[in-house]
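Box 3.1 A note on notation
Throughout this textbook, protein chains are presented in two layers. The first layer is the amino acid sequence; the second is a token string describing backbone geometry. Keep the layers aligned when reading.
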Amino acid sequence: MKNMTGVSFSDLGVPAPLVHTLRQQGISEPFEVQMESIPDAMLGRDVSCRAPTGSGKTLAFGLPLLTRCVRADPYLPTSLILTPTRELAEQICTVLRPLAHEMELEVVAIYGGTAYSKQTRPLKRGVDIVVACPGRLLDLMDNGALSLENVDIVVIDEADRMADMGFMEPVCQILDNCSRERQTILYSATLDDEVADLVKNYQHQPVTIEIGPKEVSMESMQHFFWTVHNTGKSRLASTAVKQGGRSMIFCRTRRGVDRVGKELRATGLEVATIHGGLSQSQRDRAMERFIHG
């Protein structure tokens, strides 16, 4: 994904304050997905982009959005980024906030698992850019905490995951409530099936961009399969983790996560558990512990 062309963010039309902030962060050259999509997005065109996670999508849609975003009135945001998970919403906000500050714009994340007041207070002041998961956003709309009628830029990030998680109907409902004259930008690892329907029904003559191979290669991974009795799975997992280093283990149920976590701790491993039955702050702490070893 590295830029080998010598093209700069300034060449793509990114304003000087944003270029300066990026340079302070050590970001001086755009990645391929940014070079391909930023110019059209800057012109207000709809963009439909297939790109893998980790390719630099957040800046690819974030820089044009920050450049074109109009200041908002109370309860009436003007730009919206839809994401499938609260973790991704926070990740996007972390990237955009210092850049938004340079443009005198405010960003807020909206997702379930946290107090409504934490999200409604900024909306009452007037938030320019909302980064949201569909469920909580619809809740706030139903409660009159915000209206999307002034939203003239919408980004749908990881649209294929939205479809996998059953969010397509809520996403369509949200788009139907935004300005009819909006710019709609879509990013997805695939552009097939329900994502293709979204492109057809909600984008106007989109510029289609495809980054990287269509199929993710598994050739660089090693796969192992063990046949083992149920009672021996945690013991085998512990041995694999001790030999392989820091690892992620997936279980079928919340109860299974708690049980396996307890069994692995009994073998001397440091374990953080995470599932939907925990509060957002508990999940955040678990991820922090994992990130820091």
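The mean pLDDT is 91. The chain has twelve helices and seven strands.
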